[in-house]
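Below is a filled-in request sheet from our internal design queue. Each sheet records the structural input a requester submitted and the sequence that came back. We keep these sheets so that new team members can see what a complete request looks like end to end.

REQUESTER: design group, bay 2
PRIORITY: normal
MODE: inverse folding
CHAIN LENGTH: 504
BACKBONE (tokenized):
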């Protein structure tokens, strides 16, 4: 495009440099009034620079805007503004979003033909009409794809506005109209959609347009993404997967920016390697049927036990957890501390006692003068059991069958570590260690128990201390935990005298 000052008088004025449909419409109206035919209008070239470096001018004009005598001379009467049907104007506006080097010149040609009586230009049977319809269809398809495949990531509260951020790489200039769609959908929540060429920000009241503000999706982080991927894995049915159909429904260019795109290839590969054959075994097993009176042990066929914790399917908890959380500490330790189950932060990190309960346990270790690194830390149940509460995952106590299913892994840890003293934190850990569902925490606090050649000491679980509302009770529970760890250290030097302590 030429500078705005270069627009000749033959065009009837100097419209502002067009940067979108509204500016193109203004410049086209000026050219139509001046009678400038499409082949005589110079709309510039998209040769790496800005397409709109100035307004269009009549072809043949010199650098000063002077133009030889032509039907589009300055003496041509301006004439009334052309009246265009609303349907055609809507199509032109949609087609203006189609990225093509000659889009503005093409749209002007369509407009020129219509105003000169060639109304077939709006028909798909006309070459120009067919191209116009194709451009409109491609733009509307791109709008639909943005609605469907944009994934907003929620930022942490301390990051400030915008609360939700998304990245997309559109093929056409559809960001403004897509932004209006999300303004109506997202309410007063602040958000931003970034693309390689432009960005839009919604502050809850006003929509702001800006240039590119991000380099790519790598800048996006979402603490809830692990939960979403867990859900996606749980609903993925390998028995019904059709890779070709998935690729036809979701073009490959979208997968790279979708969170689930990172795990879909492995899920499809597992389906092709045999998971498809057993994908519905679990659901078939849950179907109702005749009750057979036989013990659970006798009904179970001989199966090869899992050799790795992340392969464990001994109960249903694995379906809802991010990952299994094993023990941590020296391979041989005189003291093993057993908790109940991993919490929300442990489930995401894959390590035991890294959340609020773990921080309080560190304080108990410090008061008891016991080095955490010298102790083997684990849980009776290896998967996080939870229930949804809004956007949060709240702890739910494991039932006895889940404790029994996971005792297989605790036995392996006990056999490998060979602790002299086992500290059971809470009732769930105590039931798992002693293999008794009738033992109570209240009756065993402060009373060492002999079990399978080791001492068992019972203390409160740190999460109990965090939940106690009364400060006096909180300090008392904390003191019980400290006292229990000190007793565990004393028992290391106590000989295994028959009849000493309680027997289990």
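RETURNED SEQUENCE:
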């Amino acid at each position: 495009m030429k500078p705005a000052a270069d627009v000749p008088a033959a065009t009837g004025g100097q419209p502002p440099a067009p940067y979108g449909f509204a500016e193109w419409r203004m410049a086209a109206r000026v050219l139509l009034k001046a009678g400038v035919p499409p082949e005589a209008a110079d709309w510039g070239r998209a040769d790496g620079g800005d397409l709109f470096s100035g307004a269009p001018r009549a072809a043949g004009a010199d650098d000063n805007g002077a133009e030889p005598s032509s039907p589009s001379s300055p003496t041509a009467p301006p004439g009334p503004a052309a009246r265009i049907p609303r349907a055609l104007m809507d199509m032109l506006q949609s087609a203006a979003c189609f990225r093509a080097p000659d889009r503005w010149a093409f749209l002007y040609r369509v407009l020129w033909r219509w105003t000169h009586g060639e109304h077939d230009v709006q028909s798909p049977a006309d070459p120009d009409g067919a191209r116009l319809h194709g451009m409109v269809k491609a733009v509307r398809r791109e709008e639909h794809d943005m609605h469907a495949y944009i994934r907003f990531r929620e930022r942490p509260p301390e990051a400030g506005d915008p609360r939700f951020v998304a990245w997309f790489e559109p093929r056409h200039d559809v960001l403004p109209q897509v932004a209006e769609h999300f303004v109506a959908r997202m309410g007063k929540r602040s958000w931003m959609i970034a693309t390689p060429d432009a960005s839009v920000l919604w502050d809850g009241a006003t929509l702001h347009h800006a240039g590119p503000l991000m380099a790519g999706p790598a800048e996006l982080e979402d603490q809830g993404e692990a939960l979403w991927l867990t859900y996606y894995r749980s609903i993925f049915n390998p028995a019904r997967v059709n890779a070709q159909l998935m690729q036809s429904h979701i073009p490959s260019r979208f997968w790279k920016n979708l969170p689930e795109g990172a795990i879909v290839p492995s899920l499809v590969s597992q389906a092709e390697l045999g998971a498809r054959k057993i994908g519905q075994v679990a659901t078939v097993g849950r179907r109702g049927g005749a009750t057979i009176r036989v013990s659970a042990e006798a009904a179970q066929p001989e199966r090869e036990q899992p050799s790795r914790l992340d392969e464990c399917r001994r109960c249903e908890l694995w379906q809802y957890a991010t990952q299994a959380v094993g023990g941590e500490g020296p391979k041989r330790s005189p003291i093993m501390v057993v908790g109940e189950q991993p919490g929300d932060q442990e489930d995401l990190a894959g390590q035991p006692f890294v959340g609020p309960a773990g921080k309080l346990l560190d304080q108990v270790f410090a008061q008891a003068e016991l080095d955490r690194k010298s102790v083997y830390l684990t849980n009776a149940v290896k998967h996080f059991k939870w229930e949804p509460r809004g956007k949060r995952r709240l702890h739910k106590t494991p039932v006895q069958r889940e404790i029994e299913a996971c005792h297989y892994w605790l036995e392996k840890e006990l056999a490998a570590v060979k602790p002299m003293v086992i500290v059971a934190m809470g009732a769930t850990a105590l039931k798992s260690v002693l293999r008794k569902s009738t033992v109570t925490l209240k009756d065993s606090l402060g009373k060492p128990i002999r079990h399978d050649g080791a001492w068992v000491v019972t203390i409160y679980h740190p999460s109990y201390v965090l939940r106690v509302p009364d400060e006096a009770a909180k300090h008392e529970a904390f003191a019980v935990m400290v006292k229990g760890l000190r007793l565990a250290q004393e028992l290391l030097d106590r000989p295994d005298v028959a009849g000493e302590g309680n027997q289990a």
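SHEET NOTES:
- Confidence is low (pLDDT under 50) at residues 1-18, 45-55, 57-78.
- The first strand starts at residue 41 and ends at 42.
FILED BY: M.R.
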